[in-house]
Design goal:
Length: about 190
């Protein structure tokens, strides 16, 4: 009978230890869940205006032809979005936009479920276009290539290079020459 008494003493202690471990695990899991939810609730996106290299839309003349796909908006200091595209062969093409477009870039804090990218807003239709990062944008550009040997075109190209630096080539997007990647949210 002595052996049975010892088993009874050990069983409640073993069960209590298991219950204690389970309760501790549940508490730790709840803390992690609470921290995760608090982080999501605290996340926000603030849209900041950014300068864009532009030309007066009224100065556009000529016919627009498809020029580049996958427009990228690179943020340069101070608060300037530089529209570019990479063409076959790896050349960087600068894209000069009509002054009917406005640029915004996202400033995020905390955890944000979406991964917002810089946006272009306006144009002739008041559209909002989002330029996905790393050249994955679906924004296509129609316009004309600038010939920097021409004095008029050189002035237009200077509008881009003065804000954003050098590029292999500069194109002038038609005022209605941006298409694709339209989203329905004004930011």
């Amino acid at each position: 009978m002595g052996a049975t008494g010892e088993v009874r003493d050990e069983a409640p202690t073993g069960r209590a230890a298991i219950v204690g471990l389970v309760v501790t695990g549940v508490v730790i899991a709840l803390v992690f869940i609470g921290v995760g939810l608090a982080g999501r609730a605290a996340g926000s996106v603030e849209w900041r205006d950014a300068a864009l290299p532009t030309y007066p839309a009224a100065d556009w003349s000529g016919d627009a032809a498809p020029i580049v796909d996958s427009l990228t908006l690179d943020l340069a200091v101070p608060d300037t979005l530089c529209p570019t595209a990479t063409v076959a062969g790896g050349a960087t093409v600068a894209v000069l936009l009509a002054d009917t477009w406005r640029g915004t870039w996202p400033l995020t804090s905390g955890f944000v479920a979406d991964d917002p990218a810089p946006r272009l807003q306006g144009g002739p239709d008041g559209a909002t276009l989002e330029a996905a990062e790393h050249g994955a944008s679906e924004i296509a550009v129609a316009g004309r290539a600038l010939d920097v040997a021409s004095p008029d075109d050189a002035v237009l190209a200077e509008a881009w290079t003065s804000l954003c630096g050098e590029a292999d080539a500069v194109v002038q997007a038609a005022p209605d020459g941006l298409s694709g990647a339209e989203i329905g949210v004004e930011g």
